Structure to design on (471 residues):
């Protein structure tokens, strides 16, 4: 099974499940089904994205058909395509239409999966794990309205609210690095789990996972504030809550109280802590083994060579560290290499069997 | 019938938008100034000036000379011009825009 096909099957499975859930949502969920739905949504970030994408598609379909979603709204008969749709039938028509669309999409996806499985008989059947495709996605980089650049680690979510007095960013979860555009009149404030990080023009990294927030400053200075961890902050740093370049602050909430620590990182620890950020990996006349090592140092997904002969392949390359997927696709399409998952986080590169047979 | 039309319109819109986005990312114009020279050197320079991701087998480009490129071009056009009098070809990874350069008559087995 090719790497790309494997991924497509996984995405189609998720889309199929998302379509089924939306169809069930449309008819109303029981309490038990609601629990199942919430559990399914929280199990994988891609589930949420698939549901959102399908919801958007259906909203677009409704909009294009000129359908209204409130009983009070007047029906545009022209857009509905004729005079034979009485206003009273409108809501039922929408529901019926969505159900038909759901079944249609599900049928197409099932058909697609059947075709793929037909062409894929007998290959990779021994794999029962679910590959971590989400860790292959490119990291998201955003430029905010004020020119601040944000790099989001996989799964991180931010919301912004910029006013004349302040630039407010809410980190709902995950990890993000901010390169703040200077604006002395409008402080830049990141809120994460009850901690506020205030900066004017600086570079800092915030991680908010579970009940802990870490802030690392790589340039400039920030000020920390926290209503819920204020006492711990005062006790630890004597009331001063400024953090300078190379320092890391950690706030963790326990059952009854919060803890607050500040440590100074050396260059190596600082680089290691910020290692997730994408960077250009440049290699000149390097072995494939060296290049792969470069990717492995920056990603949770690990690539291994399954054939010693591959190590002697000498390449020049310039790739972003988060583009493992693009690198592997080009290796597959240009160098007679086949990629396969051997673990949830490990991809093995081997020689294409057909190419080996041709020798 | 109206719903079928709407669905087709939506599908067409999706395809159009997707194609536009893909083509935009590969049609960014960059100023290039790369002299004629050994491909091993000039391709590195190309990657540097274009900031595009690139990979090639060193053996494929050894003893290959590329043409001079000067002016504003899209990355793909610039590279095609540089490689116009060579046996090298490019493959673009459509999803990420990364480029692989190799010999037209390349045998996979050779370099492995």
């Amino acid at each position: 099974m090719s790497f790309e096909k494997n991924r497509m099957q996984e995405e189609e499975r998720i889309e199929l499940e998302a379509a089924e859930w939306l169809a069930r949502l449309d008819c109303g969920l029981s309490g038990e089904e609601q629990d199942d739905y919430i559990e399914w949504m929280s199990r994988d970030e891609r589930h949420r994205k698939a549901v959102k994408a399908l919801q958007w598609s259906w909203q677009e379909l409704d909009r294009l058909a000129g359908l209204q979603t409130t009983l009070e709204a007047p029906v545009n008969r022209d857009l509905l395509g004729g005079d034979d749709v009485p206003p009273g039938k409108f809501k039922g028509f929408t529901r019926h239409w969505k159900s038909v669309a759901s079944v249609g999409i599900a049928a197409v996806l099932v058909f697609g999966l059947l075709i793929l499985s037909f062409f894929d008989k007998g290959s990779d059947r021994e794999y029962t794990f679910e590959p971590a495709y989400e860790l292959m996605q490119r990291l998201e980089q955003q430029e905010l309205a004020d020119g601040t650049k944000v790099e989001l680690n996989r799964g991180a979510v931010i919301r912004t609210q910029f006013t004349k007095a302040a630039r407010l960013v809410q980190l709902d979860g995950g990890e993000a690095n901010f390169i703040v555009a200077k604006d002395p009149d409008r402080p830049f404030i990141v809120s994460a789990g009850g901690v506020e990080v205030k900066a004017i023009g600086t570079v800092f990294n915030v991680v908010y996972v579970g009940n802990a927030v870490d802030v690392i400053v790589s340039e400039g200075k920030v000020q920390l504030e926290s209503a819920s961890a204020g006492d711990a902050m005062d006790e630890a740093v004597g009331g001063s809550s400024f953090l300078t370049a190379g320092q890391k602050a950690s706030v963790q909430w326990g059952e009854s109280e919060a803890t607050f620590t500040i440590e100074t990182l050396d260059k190596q620890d600082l680089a290691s802590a910020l290692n997730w950020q994408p960077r250009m990996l440049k290699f000149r006349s390097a072995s494939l083994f060296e290049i792969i090592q470069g990717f492995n140092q920056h990603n949770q997904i690990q690539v291994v060579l399954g054939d010693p002969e591959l190590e002697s392949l000498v390449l020049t390359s310039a790739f972003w560290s988060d583009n493992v997927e693009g690198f592997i696709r080009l290796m597959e399409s240009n160098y007679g290499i086949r990629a396969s998952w051997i673990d949830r986080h490990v991809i093995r590169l081997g020689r294409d069997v057909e190419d080996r047979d041709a020798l | 019938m109206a719903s079928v039309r709407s669905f087709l319109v939506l599908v067409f819109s999706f395809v159009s938008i997707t194609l536009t986005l893909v083509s935009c990312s590969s049609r960014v114009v960059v100023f290039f100034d790369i002299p004629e020279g050994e491909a091993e050197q000039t391709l590195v320079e190309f990657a540097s000036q274009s900031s595009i991701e690139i990979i090639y087998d060193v053996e494929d480009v050894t003893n290959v000379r590329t043409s001079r490129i000067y002016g504003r071009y899209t990355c793909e056009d610039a590279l095609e011009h540089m490689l116009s009098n060579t046996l090298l070809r490019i493959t673009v990874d459509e999803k990420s825009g990364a480029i692989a350069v190799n010999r037209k008559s390349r045998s996979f087995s050779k370099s492995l």
Q: What stands out?
A: The longest strand of chain B covers residues 29-34. Strands of chain B lie at 29-34, 37-38, 54-57, 65-66, 69-74, 88-92, 99-103. The domain at 29-106 of chain B is CATH 3.55.50.30 (Phage tail protein beta-alpha-beta fold). Chain B touches chain A at residues 1-3, 5-7, 9-10, 13, 40, 43-44, 47-48, 52-59, 91, 93, 95-100, 102, 106, 108-109, 111-112 (CB under 8 Å).
